[in-house]
Design a protein that fits this description.
The chain has about 725 residues and is α/β, with parallel strands linked by helices. The protein contains 27 helices and 23 strands.
């Protein structure tokens, strides 16, 4: 369920009228630039009064969108009523369900823990996410959910209205400021602007800081602004400080390095879940569950076999954030290894936790140190001394090692054709060992060029295409994926026939190894396996056109009238939407993409479900649903943008997900590019998000930036051709 997140407000009285459109992802800087800090308090009062809740209900991997669902049914009963319904409703903040999960994220841990609690009672868990943090506790009292699991600080004021469980954790509230600024030793003598969001415990802390620092200006923002939006405003200088929980800062600092943490501004405080005061049975059950959880422990580094992991109901996969193993696309977590590991975890009643290794060379050391329970990253089993400290599973994939060069290269017939060439690969990869064996065994002289361990195979292939490297080696399935998306590279020579790829575990974890082997043996080439393999590594380059344009008699597509109707309703140029439709489906109503998108506008089924769309192959349903989603992503960006730039950002978001575009805008500013201009600016930053150097600092992680960049360019070029064509007529 998602209620429209946009409200228009015109403050009245002695303050001059202000109109500002707010979305959950509007940054604090945009807000302040538009209205000035003098209007903030009045506007926030109106926001809190008029907007109310902006709610969704979806699983954590979906890209939530605004629809027109029926009003929610409210239940404010205790555990007996929850058991009767069979569903435990968990209230969270929606900003935390649309990013790439990272190790240690307290909000992710809470959702996983809530899932385990629901399963312990035989209940289904339903996530109810609100765009406004300050609405969480009122929504709980109103009966929209049963518990709040949102890194919630226990405060005396909150204890008057809700009941808290035993503490899940403890933390400090910390002062945050931009990197490079003088770091205060204590929270005294502060001057400038301190930004906090309403409804948070930081609001009360800021009032206490104001008493100590009368020169400080407190700027209170609506409760639906995200924590990273405030961090961004501190980094850009729109704010001098903000406040954040120490446990969340640890996660932010794992991928951001553009801010610094100052002194604590609070005493140590407890974090807990909240329930209604009329739910004593639910509170008792939660406390009992959490007591057991704390006895079992939740330390970060440990080695545990299957029986202990099943007690923890959690298993950790170590992998890489790339197009083959694990990535975020349109708000959905995907990847061949991720899909397989999720299925394995579900089979044994465990939640899958993903731990992303900084480089390929870190995968096995992280396993040996207890940072994860198994590695799933298309690894080639070897007998090297380092690798002998782990045990490899039965194969879950077979791939050939292929020399890759530019499309203009002449094909090679034998390894002797490598003589005098320079081949770039990672030292830790199986490719390096293969090349050394060929060079030593056959006496062929060529140079092996060592590249950074953080580079993904697709980045190396792109570097070959650009002439930065002469040749490289890639697994056949990765090369096939690249060749389906680009035409400037080719396979030149197969070095090794199909060889196994496998998962890795600690040698002592014999139960886990047996379970993994049984699972992989049963799933290999199963229907699920084949579908996943086809989805990720057998993508068609493009759809065949579903319409013969010859003699079209002044029509751009078979659906011009339909597009005109809905484009006018949602405020878009119909010719642009026809161009987008061509790019999405080539006008084929039954088209299905590698990721599962359906219909003329290639809407993801989960998105369609959120919008109440059933038959996405129906042209009318697809066009309306696609335009509603396009309007939703349009509204994720500030209205101060030039209209054309706004459109390019919306289209890029439609293709890749608006979170990746937000990351690209932040990166563009860091690279001294214009974050408000797509062409030649943000699109360049988007391309860099495929590189580990940059993607590991992005909230939404890796994205294959070439796809949204090409998507926008093709739509724009075809749109201009449509405009010229119709103008001539």
């Amino acid at each position: 369920m998602f209620y429209n997140a946009w409200c228009r407000h015109s403050p009245i009285g002695s303050v001059s009228p202000v109109v500002f459109e707010w979305s959950p992802n509007t940054c604090a800087e945009d807000f302040m630039r538009h209205i000035g800090t003098t209007h903030l308090l009045l506007i926030f009062t109106l926001l809190a009064t008029v907007c109310g809740a902006n709610e969704i209900s979806s699983d954590e991997n979906s890209e939530a969108v605004a629809g027109n669902p029926p009003a929610p049914v409210l239940h404010a009963d205790d555990l007996a009523g929850i058991r009767a319904r069979g569903v435990l409703r968990v209230l969270v903040e929606s900003d935390h369900i649309r990013h790439l999960p990272r190790k240690g994220d307290p909000l992710l841990k809470e959702r996983d823990l809530a899932q385990r609690f629901a399963e312990s009672l035989g209940l289904e868990m339903q996530v109810v996410a609100l765009d406004t943090f300050s609405r969480l506790l009122p929504a709980l009292q109103d009966g929209l959910g049963d518990i709040v699991a949102a890194n919630l600080t226990v405060t005396p004021a909150r204890q008057e209205s809700v009941s808290f469980t035993v503490p899940l954790d403890r933390r400090f509230e910390m002062l945050v400021l931009a990197k490079g600024r003088d770091l205060p030793e204590e929270a005294k003598g502060l001057t400038g602007k301190l930004g906090v969001r309403a409804g948070s415990s930081f609001e009360q802390t800021s009032a206490e800081l104001l008493e100590m620092n009368p020169q400080l200006e407190i700027v209170t923002f609506p409760g639906n602004i995200g924590a990273e939006a405030l961090l961004d405003s501190v980094v850009t200088g729109s704010l001098d400080y903000t406040i954040q929980d120490s446990n969340r800062l640890t996660v932010f600092l794992s991928y951001r390095n553009d801010f610094q943490v100052g002194p604590p501004v609070s005493t140590e405080r407890s974090l807990a879940w909240a329930v209604r005061q009329n739910s004593p049975a639910l509170l008792e059950a939660l406390n009992g569950f959490l007591h057991v959880h704390r006895i079992l422990g939740h330390e970060n580094n440990y080695v545990a076999d299957l029986s202990e992991l099943r007690k923890k109901r959690n298993i950790r996969m170590i992998t890489r954030n790339n197009a083959a193993t694990y990535f975020l696309w349109r708000g959905r977590l995907m990847g061949f290894e991720y899909d397989m590991a999720t299925r394995f975890a579900k089979k044994y009643g465990m939640q899958l936790e993903v731990v992303v290794a900084p480089t390929h060379a870190d995968l096995l050391p992280m396993l040996r140190s207890g940072e994860g329970d198994f590695v799933a990253a298309f690894m080639t089993p070897t007998t090297d001394s380092n690798d002998s400290l782990v045990t490899f599973s039965n194969p879950n994939y077979f791939a050939s090692e292929v020399v890759v060069g530019r499309a203009s290269e002449s094909p090679m017939n034998t390894p002797a054709d490598l003589a005098g060439r320079r081949i770039a690969v990672r030292r830790s990869s199986a490719y390096w060992r293969t090349l050394e064996e060929i060079r030593a065994g056959e006496g062929i002289e060529f140079e092996i060029v060592e590249i950074p361990e953080s580079m993904e195979t697709e980045s190396v292939i792109a570097a070959v295409a650009d002439g930065l490297y002469e040749l490289t080696v890639a697994d056949s399935h990765l090369l096939e994926l690249e060749m389906s998306l680009r035409d400037d590279i080719q396979g030149l020579l197969q070095l090794k026939g199909p060889t196994p790829r496998a998962w890795a575990v600690q040698p002592r974890n014999t139960e886990l190894l047996k379970a993994i082997n049984d699972f992989l043996d049963s799933e290999y080439r199963s229907e699920f396996y084949n579908i996943a393999n086809s989805r990720y590594f057998d993508r068609p380059a493009k759809y065949e056109s579903g319409w013969d344009e010859a003699g079209a008699d002044e029509k751009l597509s078979p659906y011009d009238d339909l597009v005109r109707e809905f484009a006018q309703r949602y405020g878009f140029d119909w010719r642009l939407i026809v161009s987008q439709m061509y790019q999405e489906s080539r006008f084929k109503p039954q088209a299905r993409s590698w990721a599962g998108a359906v219909g003329l506008m290639q809407v993801m089924p989960r998105t369609g479900k959120e919008l109440g769309a059933v038959d996405l192959e129906d042209p009318r349903v697809s066009v309306e649903t696609g335009l509603r989603y396009l309007k939703w992503v349009w509204e994720r960006f500030p209205n101060r943008l030039d209209h054309d730039e706004h459109m390019w950002f919306a289209l890029a978001s439609y293709n890749a997900g608006h979170g990746h575009v937000r990351d690209a805008r932040r990166l563009a500013a860091q690279l001294e590019l214009d974050p408000d201009v797509w062409m030649g600016n943000v699109e360049l930053a988007m391309l860099k998000l495929a590189e580990p150097e940059y993607s590991r600092h992005a909230r939404h992680g890796y994205v294959r930036g070439t796809e949204p960049v090409a998507y926008v360019r093709h739509i724009r070029e075809r749109y201009r051709a449509y405009v010229d064509l119709l103008d001539r007529e």
